[in-house]
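Table 4 source record.
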Amino acid sequence: MSGFVAEARIALPDPEALIGPVCEHLKEHGAEITREDGAYVVAMDMATSRFWRENDALVVRAEARDLQSLYLVKMGIASHLMEFAGDETVEISWTGDGRELAAPPNFQIMDVAAVRNVTPHMRRITLRGENLARFDTLEALHLRVIIQHPDSRVPQWPSVGSNGLVRWPEGSHRPHLRKYTVRSVDAAAGTMDIDFVIHPDAGPGSAWAERVTAGEQAGIVGPGGGGLRPADWYLFAGDETALPAIGRMLEALPETARGVALIEVADKAEEQAIATGSGVEIRWLHRNGAAPGSTTLLADAVREVAFPVDGASVFAWAGCEFDAFKAIRGYLRRERGLKKDENLIVSYWRKGRTEDELSHADELEH
């Protein structure tokens, strides 16, 4: 790994007590851990980190191929060190590349170009800005929208502290961050579309989508999250919250792709036109008056799908409420026996819980 390098020296009474648990935790998130000259070497797709003890200090060295990856790994290391340190004070100050960053490199301010309803309960917001090529990928479908507090007179934007963590202005009007899918992006034109589900018990994101108008500003952070993987046959399953992701993936598939897409919506009025040229069959599932998350409609439909028996490679993607997520993931992994690289099942929401309450929970993990 080469390109950008940063290092931090952290005074600790017992560095080894922190190095081991942090590295084991990173291993659970897909990192490969090895030992080299007394150091723990943590290798991930975007960066390599080294942890070692030097007298009464923990030394951390992070290397990445680009500045954004270095920023993300520095932030991840700092947050994990502070989490595992518990009540112990951990003072982190990075040296090297990235110290000059005034704001996160994956943050930018966009202009709201247009707002329209796709269906009675799905609103599409078109944003305009520069340097959108990084969003033009199916490997990372999501971003976070910075939702300003409705009582804030001046927008609050993030900066970067010397410890690598995001820093917000002091005060009671801190913005909310909400995760959404990039429905479509035209990097050449400098525009992207994001779809918002509009519902009565609106959270910050839905409420913002209802009141925002063209000409306002919006902050975004990203991209991130998992996306589409190559396969011969696909299974897509999701409710309204996953519809933007499913629609984008379906429209990107080649003509040779086949499979089934199961999309749960309130009723026929919430169906959307999806311009896919693939052989994937779209099946709309209507709740017809039942509340979102109150039925087994989606999980039952997944069980009824006939998987290929001709040796075709398979990829299953699902995004939905937590109970459906558990049922679908359990069926696909345990009963169908899909391997880790053959499925990506995520919980987008949970009945009775806000995204703020779920942000640190395992239920948002794949």
